[in-house]
Write a structure and sequence with these properties.
Layout (H helix, E strand, L loop, with lengths): L7 H17 L22 H7 L6 H12 L5 H17 L11 H31 L23 H4 L10 H10 L5 H15 L15
């Protein structure tokens, strides 16, 4: 495989392809297509791009604009997702069969998808009604002592958040990614482990003749 890749997504995909070819042998058929993972900054109107722009230091007007872009008719990612779920429900609808009332998996699937579609329409209505409230909030963040009273909602890091420490040339994006990792509950155990390691490294050396436990690192 070549030694240089233009993105982490390309490198990860190439490594996966290589491992699959090794597992399947030389007669594994045509190679898989690698999906690229562009940086969020390359497309500010994509969902990763809007998440990257939605920093805690963003102005209320910027955040309201991002939410408005998300819910925008036809081009917003949320209406597109809603239509995708609706199209999937219609696909299941075309396969309904009520001949056997005790066994109708297509109807069960349609019911689930219809419920998801209804939920997405409610989410869009809630976000649209929140735009004015977002724009009315103060520009500066409040005192951090108030923040712990409400749980953090973002619990899933994006690919670029997870891999940011391996991308020294990430540019301004690295600061936001590091902040996302620092505030994510799923990274708390790692932070605690890192602090424990630092504390262990800074501990003074035992005096001669003193009994110690554990293993030296």
């Amino acid at each position: 495989m070549p030694e240089y890749y233009s993105s982490i997504g390309e490198a990860v995909g190439a490594a996966m392809q290589h491992n699959i070819r090794l597992a399947r042998g030389p007669e594994s058929g045509p190679p898989l297509q690698v999906r690229q993972f562009p940086l969020p900054s390359s497309d500010p109107y994509s969902m990763p791009g809007m998440i990257a722009r939605l920093e805690v230091t963003a102005t209320p007007q910027d955040v309201a604009g991002i939410v408005e872009e998300t819910t925008g008719a036809l081009v917003g990612p949320l209406p597109q997702l809603t239509e995708l779920v609706a199209a999937t429900a219609d696909w299941a609808r075309a396969r309904l069969n009520f001949d056997d009332p005790d066994h109708n998996p297509a109807f069960d699937l349609w019911t689930r998808l219809a419920s998801a579609h209804y939920t997405l329409t409610l989410v869009q209505a809630d976000l649209e009604s929140a735009i004015d409230g977002i724009a009315a909030l103060p520009t500066e963040p409040s005192d951090p002592r108030h923040h712990d009273k409400v749980e953090v909602k973002r619990t899933r890091e994006l690919l670029h958040d997870v891999m940011s420490d391996r991308c020294p040339d990430a540019g301004p994006e690295a600061g936001r990614q590091q902040a996302a990792l620092a505030h994510s509950p799923s990274t708390a155990p790692r932070r605690a482990a890192g602090q424990h390691s630092s504390a262990s490294a800074a501990a003074p050396a035992p005096t001669p003749g003193a009994r110690t436990t554990g293993y030296a690192r």
